[in-house]
Amino acid sequence: MLLVPAGEFLMGEGKDAHLVYVTAFTLAKYPVTNAAYQPFIAATGHPPPRDWPEGRFREILRDHPVVNVSWHDALAYCRWLSIESGRLYRLPTEAEWEKAARGPSAQTYPWGDEFDKTRCNTWEAGMGRATAVDTYPTGASPYGVMDLVGNVWEWCRTLHADYAYRADDGREDLTAEGWRALRGGSWLDYEWGARPARRLSGQPDYVSRNTGFRVACEA
Fold it and tell me: Is residue 41 within 8 Å of residue 175, measured between CB atoms?
């Protein structure tokens, strides 16, 4: 877990850009991997991802991000991890995720303002699949967070709603109905769709082979 300090940052891009204040929090350095997700399945009996033959991941994929997980699956994992650890883990808000990816100066990519296909797993990299979460060490954000561009889309806790972002307008209500925000792009996306300021949304029960998540925690 890496610290993202409190402060304002410029969220969004172009006409949607606006200042948002985010309190300090910590964010996982990597997306949740298959190996990290397995104990949750074993302990709770929660249904495994559909790409796990006989309920277990293939060993060659242990350090790959877990995929085929819904927003509800991600929340269930966070609840289990909170009980196991005694700390309150959760999904990051959309604002937290973007600040962790772009830093206080709102750079275009985690590493700067110029795209570099050697720093991330997007379509331009030519991988044609997800990769282990530590494959691109030079793609770190200003806070040291990895894999924030490409590889897999990541669930946020936030309802997908119009800008400007406001944490107190109901979009962070976990009981509200509606589509939830996804961030970061994937190995299937070109760089223009994987930039940290870009937004996607999905139904909370949606699963796909290029969608995963990472966890956040209070500072």
Answer: no
